[in-house]
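It would be a great kindness if you could assist me with a short task in structural biology. The full record is reproduced below for your convenience:
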Amino acid sequence: MTANKVDRELIGESVRFKAVLQQVRVVAPVDSAVLIQGETGTGKELIAEAIHNQSRRASGPLIKVNCSAIPAGLLESELFGHERGAFTGAISQRIGRLQLAHKGTLFLDEIGDLPLELQPKLLRALQEQNFERLGSSQTIHVDVRIVAATNQDLAQMVNERHFRVDLYYRLNVFPIVLPPLRERALDIPALVRHFVHVYGERMNKIVNDIPEHVMESLCAYDWPGNIRELQNFVERAVLMSEDGRFSPPLLEPRRAITPTVEKPAETLADMERVHIMDTLQKTNWVIGGRAGAAARLGLPRTTLIFRMRKLGISRKPFHSAAPWRISPPGVPADPSQAFTRVTGGAYSA
């Protein structure tokens, strides 16, 4: 995306959004790491592009990595690259995205989903500006600026030991917090007109009549999906519009109705625990190997063992005929130590 296009899409006159733009202007010319935080759909990637385009690295590459979209087992190779034969399936040398971003900016989106075991290597690469490809001992030096983004509370993740504190401080040199759209309703009319123009051009339609009551309805809505939801809504509306009149699918978007009795929400850890337990049961608690739970979950064996320990997952040992025997001979009493193969098949790593 070109700098001019990014600037055109940084739309807003609200105090909160103007403060964000001022932060971009302050930090863009220097090479400090930036951590962009905000709800999903608030435009974190657009802000990252604006920082790059207003920096001295604008003529260099902007390389993007979505840490949640790439399987954990492949993310290390994506970031650092690998040599031919470094692992099964590595049939040729691959240049990692960190090296591709040399003299430019590396944008690490959804950084909160970066696997814990990969964080020390990334930290070293950021601090030393060098790294080694998988399967190689040759050190590669790079000149890269880091911009990261997340919709998670990284400080809380640090407290819960789900994110390394040293990496957090390395990324959080200059934090930028994007406000949700509900807190910048003043900007909604300008955003609506912008998206109407964009999609009108794409669909070869002229839509220049936006009824006042429709705009009031749009400004009154909470937009839980933020700008991305508004953008998709306007696209549908332009598609349905006729005779130049903006015709949204719902004239008055309704706020979500909160039920009087709510089921307690499951935490992410709860859902992860259930998923891992279900997979372990399907594999008869075999973790490693091609048919093991780690392969089914798309995780390295060591990562799955770490997650099992973190979530307190362990297989209940078989009971012997003697009522006083709690576990087979050789099974440690501490479940966190019980992830090695034990005679009798109670545990399998």
User: Anything to note?
Assistant: The chain is about 40% helix and 10% strand. Strands lie at 34-37, 62-66, 81-82, 94-95, 104-109, 130-132, 139-141, 144-150, 174-177.
